Structure formats: structure tokens, C-alpha cells
Amino acid sequence: MTEQRVVAAIDLGTTSARCMLFDHRGRMVAIAQREQRQSFPRPGWAEQDALELWRNVRRIVPEALRLAGLDESNVAAVGIANQRETTVVWDRRTGQPLAPAITWQDTRTGPVVDQIAPEAEAVRRIAGFKPASYFAAPRLRWLLDNVRGLESRARSGEALFGTLESWLIWNLTGGPKHGIHVTDVTNASRTMLMDLRSLQWSSKLLGLLDIPDAMLPRIVSNSEVYAQCTTVLPGVPIAAAIGDQQAALFGQLCFEPGDAKCTYGTGAFLLMNVGTSIVDSTHGLLPTVGFAAPGSDPMYALEGPIAVAGSLVRWFRDSLGVIATAPQIETLARTVEDNGGCYIVPAFSGLLAPHWDSEARGIFVGLTSYITKGHLARAVLEATAWQTWEVVNAMTNDSGVAPTRLAVDGGMTSNHLLMQFNADVLNVPVVRPFVSETVSLGAAYAAGLAVGYWPDTAALRANRHVAAAWYPSMDDRIRRREAAGWTAAVARALTPTEAATHYSWEPQR
Asked: For residue 509, what pLDDT band results from cuts at 50, 70 and 90?
């Protein structure tokens, strides 16, 4: 084996598990990946097998090391990033999951959210946002109500709860024998159980949902040594855990207030650094923890999650059969100059930010005999850009700061037409870094900083290299006309109550 030292990042995403190795220059040395199955047993339900996710990690980490010609002695630290809000409950003594993991896409918990609706403002004051089925706590309450015996086992401490980083750290550190039960502050901030100011579990929120505190993990920062691995990477310190979108914010080096990034995958997730003070949102965004390290004030962020982005392209390919492969959508969209007046609002299971209308449904608007497959393809791509536009405008209105550029990452950034349209409608440059896997890079950076592999954030900035940039070129009159068309289309997709209060998400002047 060589003497090379690397930092490992494990990314438990929605559709795949990845292990990436990074060197001092922030360059990826090796990657191993496995797909992860999803199950949709009923309408609105989305589940995964937590044991399968753990088996995948046990396979990809050794595979990445083999590809690099390294072993665990070459790994300075490991950092973890994960799909957030996914809820796991397991047996403390056996390590066996007690139910399927309920993922962030699941919407079954509407009745739980409705029950606490009268306390919505109290929840917002503590957690930073109003109750929604998007968060982990309603899923945990649903499991306690519907899995036989779970409630009593949870109160006795026999059953444990965690999001995926918690589940993974527990297994990496020995599981039933001596696994540690922790969660990082970014994932905890997405449970709807944490006080966004104290960064601790809220007794008020626990009581509201009657969640037993005996099953909760201890909240830790994003960048510190929690413990050493006893499995998979024996002796390697676990030095970071961070929710995937906050990891991308960190990997994109968004260290200053106003820095913003958007990750385009199954959904799209736009976060903006708002500094060391919480910015309350009145425009449908989520105040959240962006990053926290021992001895320093936490960095807060505003987030706008978009449920459907890349999954709309997959639907266009798999359900409609218009294209055979995802990359073909750009070729097809380039056969026309514009959308021909056609808009697609992809509210397959409601709309998230900034509308939060779980009953909204997807629609086509502006269909005429003039519309071709090319126009539809263009409308599919433009839907992602327009949803981004809505969130950016909401962030500007909430924070009073307009992003001067948007850093992007994720699979959809390979679509140049979409990225150019993003720049056009946002009227700011859109920039993609050389290392596009910024979720894994952010987890690696956080772990490396904790063990001194990188001395400070200045060393991280020195690693930054731009791979591609797109600059706005759309006439302002066209931008406003097209924005009005999108806004009208969204109003038609919203439920009548929401549509009555719908307004254009233009920035306030």
C-alpha cells in the first residue's frame, strides 16, 4: 500500500450509496457506488430497507479503497452525508430495524400534521417552520402509532430512533455491542423536534407529539471526532456527519451570507447562507442549521426544497416514453426555440417551497395543436428552472439579500440548456465547480477539518476550480412575460384555498 492519505466520504442518497475518497487538493481519488431500492407500497408511501442501506455501505467502502490501491490505514477520517428526514427505528439489543425506513418523499403523515395544526405557530417559533409531513417527527409519531409494541419499547429505551447518519454511525461503531447513538445538528434541525436556537431537543415539541426522549440520539456538531469505526474502517475516526444539502452548501464553499447553491437530483434543494442569526421566513422557506463546529457560532441557512426535478425527466422518459434516455431531452428540447406557450407544473404529490400545498396536482397549461414533443421537452426542463426562480425570489424577500450568483451541482447540471435557462430567468451567473459531487466533498471537508487534514477553510478555497459557467442573456421583457406564464400555471395547479392567496413571487423592490 502507498503512504497516500485521503479522507473518505460516505453519501447515503435516495437512489444510491456512494463512497468517495478525496486527497489534499480536494480531488476525487476513487468512487464506489451501489443503487438503493425504493418501495412505494401505497399511494403517498415511500420506504426503504435500512439493512440494505447498511449492507451497501459495507460493500462500497472496501471497493473504493481497492480501486485506489489503499486500505484503512490510509484514511485520515470519514465523513457522512445523507438524505435527510428519512426515519429509522431499530432494536437496541439486536440492531434490527423495527419497520421499513420512511423516506423524505413519503406523505402518509398528513393526519398527524393536521392534529397539531392548532400549535403551528408554536412549532414555528421553536423549530423554525410550521408542521408538515416533510419532516421526520410526524413519521416517527406514525410509526409509534402503527407498529405493534413500538411505543412501549421506545419508552423503555429498547427502541431507538434516528435519521440515516444516526443509523450508519451506530453500525460503524459496533451496533448492539457498543454503537454510539448520535445525530448531527443539521439532521436534527429537520426532525421538527429540535430548538433551532439552543440546538437541543425541545421538551415542548416532544410533548406535542408525545415522543419518548429515551429513543432519541444525542445531538452533536457537524465537524468533530465522534468515535472510531470498529467495523468497515476499523480505527478510522468518524469526524463529520451532515445532511446532504448542507453538505453541498459546505462543499460549494458557501461560507459568506448571501452565498447560495442548488443541488439538482431527484428533487432540487436550494440553500442560502444567512449568517449566524436565524432569518424567519414569511415566504414559504425553511430556516435551518447550515453548519456547526465546536467553539464557533452556528451558520444558519434558508432552504427551499423542490420535490420534483430530475424525477420529472425520468417520468417523461419512463411513463410517457417520449425519450429513451435522460440526455436525449436536451437534444429534443433544442429542436424548438421556446416552449410555445406550454408550461408543466410537476405537482405529482403536491408542491413544496414556496407554496407548501400537499393537495396541488400536476398540470399541463397552454396545450394547442401547435405544441410538439420538442415544446414538451423544453417545458419539462423549464419547470425546474422556474421552481428555482420562485425559491430564489422568496429568499431575496426573506433575507433582503439577492444572490449574485448561484452555485450548482448534481446530475442535472450536465444539461446545458437547463443551466443556461436558469441563468436567464434568475438573471445571475450559474456556476458549476470542477468537483461536481459537492455533497460528498462537503462531508469530506468537514471531517478533514476536524482532524487537521486541512488546516482551515482558506485551504479549502484554494482547492476550488470552476468547470462551467452560464451567464444571463435573456431580454428582460421576455423574462417577465415567461414568468407571468409560469405564475399563472402554478395558480391553476394549487388547491382553491391556496390559489386564492397565490401571488407572484417576484422580489420586492
From this structure: very low
Residue 243, Cβ density class (10 Å: 0-12 exposed, 13-18 middle, ≥19 buried): buried
How many other C-beta atoms can be found within 10 angstroms of the C-beta atom of residue 110? 16
User: What is the predicted pLDDT for the residue at 498?
Assistant: 55
* Consecutive H or E run containing 333: helix 328-333
Least confident segment among 57-61, 103-107, 223-227: 103-107
- DSSP code per residue over 220-265: E-SEEEEEE-SSSSTT-EEEEEEEHHHHHHHHTT--STT-EEEEES
What's the rounded Cα separation, in Å, for the pair 302 and 391? 10
Edge to edge, what strands does the sheet with 430-433 contain? 286-291, 299-306, 268-275, 260-264, 406-409, 430-433, 466-470
pLDDT of residue 386: 97
Q: What is the 3-state secondary structure (H, E, C) of 345-406?
A: ECCECEECCCCCECCCCCEEECCCCCCCHHHHHHHHHHHHHHHHHHHHHHHHHHHCCCCCCE
In this predicted structure, the answer to whether residue 508 has a pLDDT above a threshold of 90 is no
The DSSP call for residue 342 is -
- Specify burial of residue 297 (Cβ count, 10 A radius: 0-12, 13-18, 19+): exposed
Q: What is the pLDDT of residues 398-423, one digit of tens each?
A: 988 888 899 999 889 999 999 999 99
Distance of CA 325 to the CA centre of its chain: 25
Task: Quote the CA–CA distance of 174 and 167 in Å, as a whole number.
Answer: 11
pTM over cut 0.70: yes
What's the confidence (pLDDT) of residue 504? Answer: 43
3-state secondary structure of 321: coil
Read off the C-alpha cell for 476: 428582460
pLDDT value at residue 15: 82
User: What is the number of residues in the chain?
Assistant: 509
Per-residue confidence band for 500, with pLDDT thresholds at 50, 70 and 90: very low
Asked if residues 350 and 366 have their Cβ atoms less than 8 Å apart, the reply is no
What's the CA gap between 310 and 380, in Å, rounded?
Answer: 10
**204-223, pLDDT tens digit by residue?**
999 999 999 999 999 999 99
Q: How far is residue 38's CA from residue 52's CA, in Å, rounded to a whole number?
A: 11
The single residue listed with the C-alpha cell 459546505 is 250
Query: Exposed (0-12), middle (13-18) or buried (19+): which is 292, by Cβ within 10 Å?
Result: buried
pLDDT, mean of residues 184-202: 96
CA 260 to chain centre: 14
For residues 247 and 139, give the distance between their C-alpha atoms in angstroms, rounded to a whole number: 23
How is residue 439 written as a grid cell?
Answer: 455533497
Q: CA angle, corner 100, sides to 95 and 101, nearest 5?
A: 85
